[in-house]
Amino acid sequence: MRGILSMAAYIPPYRVATASGGIRTLAAHDQDTTTLGVEAGWLALHGRDTDEIERLLFATTTPAYLDKNNASAVHAALGLPSAVAAVDTGGALRSGIGSLLTALQGGPPTLVVAADMRTGRPGSDEERLGGDAAAAVVVGEGTGVIAEFLGCASSTLELMDRWRLAGETTARIWEDRFGESAYLGEVSEVVDTALARAGVARHEVRLLVSGAHARAVTAVRRALGVKTADELTATTGHCGAAHSQLLLVAALEEAEPGDVFALVSLADGVDVLVFRATSVGARPVLSLRDQLASPGHTVTYEKFLTWRGFLTREPPRRPNPARPTAPSAFRHRDWKFALAEAGGRRLSTVHGTVTTYTTDHLAHSPSPPTIVAVVDLDGGGRRVTELTDVAPDAVSVGDRVEMTFRRFRTADGVHNYFWKARPERLGTGA
């Protein structure tokens, strides 16, 4: 049996209310798609032996780097063995479902990570309907499969319904009716082919339909006449290359043994993947539903624009931070990316307690003030670290914290990744 061995999603704790009354998720000022991918990957691997992973595929339409492999940083932060092949598969919305399909069709045990940060011009539908999130699944074979892969079908279209030129930060979109018509002309045949290969009928499945073209998604759900699951866009926005995996995670969290799902992705064609939930396995250590139910932090529209780079804050009157040097980062990569001490102890998985803290209003940050704390680590040790995902007036001595991989700053074209602390989510030892 081949299929999904474990899965998880990561939703940033920040939210922006939309004009239509919905909510879109928002990555923090110190996050990018690499750090989002690390969060989802860590949750998917929680409690598993990382030595079983032999391949990492990372998909995003908004990579932190071009030319440089972003999957390498995800690999390093997760502490995967050096023998694991880590490869970027991004650039297009279809890369998320494509990476998952590649892993399911054969090969070694694979961690498939998809992360995206979607935006548009200020005031546009793209800005309102987008979202930021990541999802990860472990694909392989054996008795531990929690969702059996039954079959698939695809159709590829050369379709200019959505595109973005190199160097641009927002997408261009053709008139809505064009994309809707193109997808509707393909989807029914592809769905029927996938279901036939899987050996199931339409009435036996629940559809999970993902697509950045909202009008096409609505039309497809209506045209197929099959019960469909929540598409999540009202609570997350559409999360780009990660959205199809988000829908799959959400469905499997609530699934009963024997439930059959057809994951339909509309992006430069149609991809349909069919799964059957088994009686084996457990829910993620931190569920997608619990993350969405959390009140999170509401962000003003001005702050949203600042974090996205559309507004530039007045910087502090201090020297600009220096970029990290490549030789030093390489020599200390185990500490910098995996937070691993010389003796092999990985502090990235260790929780701690705030013993004292200070609030700095002058440090370089797109979202001041910066909170710096001294944390006593469980099992011994103390370190000074920056706090994130918490307001200054919500910090107290005695607070429990855990580590999180973040982007401290970007200087001279180099992203400086390292670890911060945030309020504890999972409890000690989780």
From TrEMBL:
Domain ChsH2 C-terminal OB-fold: 351-406
Superkingdom of this protein's organism: Bacteria
Pfam families the record matches: OB_ChsH2_C
Name of this protein: 3-hydroxy-3-methylglutaryl CoA synthase
Source species of the chain: Kibdelosporangium banguiense
Lineage: Bacteria, Bacillati, Actinomycetota, Actinomycetes, Pseudonocardiales
